[in-house]
Amino acid sequence: MAVYVNILGAGLAGMTAARTLAKNNIHVRLFSVQVSQRAQSNLAEGGLNAALNMMGENDDINQHFEDTMKGGCYIADPDMVKGLCEGAPSIVNEMGRIGVPWHMENGHIIQRPFGGQKKRRTCYAMSSTGKILTTASIDDTRKYEDSGLIERYTHHKFAGILVKNNKCIGIKIYDNHEGTYNNYSGPVIICSGGMNGMFPSITTGTTSNTGSVTAMLYNSGVKLSNLEFIQYHPTTVKITDKRMLISEAARGEGGRLCYLDGETKVYFMEDKFGERGNLMPRDVVSKEMAMLNKKTYLDMTGLSSDVWNNRLKDLRDEIIDYLNIDPANELIEVAPGIHYFMGGIKVDINHETNIEGLYAAGECAAAYHGANRLGGNSLLGAIYGGKTAAESIIKALDNFDDKEVLNEFSDDLNENIFLSEEEKSKDKVLTGILIKSMGIIRDETSLNLGLCELENIESNNTSFEFKSRLNLAKAMIECAINRRESRGAHNRTDYPESNDSYKKSTTVSLVNNEIIIE
Ligand SMILES: Cc1cc2nc3c(=O)[nH]c(=O)nc-3n(C[C@H](O)[C@H](O)[C@H](O)COP(=O)(O)OP(=O)(O)OC[C@H]3O[C@@H](n4cnc5c(N)ncnc54)[C@H](O)[C@@H]3O)c2cc1C
To answer: What is the pLDDT of residues 138-149, one digit of tens each?
Structure first.
């Protein structure tokens, strides 16, 4: 039997990794709790960045690189960011080839301005870029499913990695259909998305991405990075038990942020930062809104009918449907909400973790975005990262043995990847503490208080999943305490300035139950 590669997660990162391997005749198992149609990737609205220079602004890859490094406050690995920016134009072409109808006018792709970028660089497909990219990817993936190279296992849940001598030789999966645990041999790529479920109620992302995969990996010795950097998107609106995003495309196409002084609209971002104030990087805008501490609004009333009809039609429909507000005529009250995790599983340039044979890509991996991600760079990062992880495995395939004996792993872990009812209520307390502690503005006193509150949550006789989530929550707060400066999405009132001695990534690991921060 040939070596199989196991991919956990079937969003854009997972599907891209799977197709890259299958194109090279390598067999893949693609596991996910939900079908690809429901992955977070579908929710992406605004677009994907590539320096195609379609708008006659002399854009190029170096400027994409410079904007990405600057947006991330210069702590991302420059070699990795260079690869990302160089790879972007061919990703746009490849996605077009498999059926993505990029928005075009007069025979060429239209690129829109997005936050923190000097040039119009964001390619899009209506206001549903993620859904359209995912649909095309699902279709292309199906070809390899039909030929048998990709085997799909949906409604399958991560239960652990199988590690021998610091080498990952397989994955443990819970089959929801059969109610059984199974071990699968071969290298593993984790593509499990962001840790939204650690921050329910204030996230724009799907809480089906619970954060538990990252938590369980951390508990199993996998190093994480930059957990203190959590992106708050400036324009979100509360709906039901989470937050709805109003895409940055709204400001890219002319939307403006304001507050009201009586009847007068005060455009505070423009007043402070000039003409491009509304399109400052997200960390800057969210911080301004938090400091303002006033009701803020998105004003799209000045947009032309051409923009509404050609570029933001479905965004307007969505706002009318969900909020009962017509943004062409009325202001929308907005506030920052958690939107993206710059931190996550630490990977090297090959997307390999500190455990040989274990790779990670997409939002679960801390790779390209440093202290703050630029809008449009994460769809790119998910596709590029999935491709890179797969290509790295192809190069290393001879190191994997298809006859690895997994029997020795058969009994452990089977017990506990589900939260009991009691743990679910403890988890509510845990996430509440995180939400309170890891806000836009932080200080040592409130972070320490959060840590103490976490310490008080009883963790004896708990499931592997809950124990892991508790440890991950503590690691997040410890990382935030440890970075005694303000940088990107991490703002400390007690250390309001950036400090060059912190111009680097944080690495955190759990060794003998102790949090080690490097
Ligand atoms: C509302 C919104 C709009 C956005 N708009 C943009 C945009 O315009 N441009 C941009 O660049 N980025 C955008 N983003 C960010 C972007 O969508 C994500 O970062 C990206 O899609 C992540 O892709 P992924 O493949 O890493 O993860 P996902 O698409 O989240 O896929 C994760 C996969 O892991 C599986 N999984 C999770 N947990 C488990 C488990 N325990 N066991 C088994 N499987 C599991 C899931 O089922 C899923 O298949 C947006 C995000 C949001 C929330």
So the answer is: 999 999 999 999
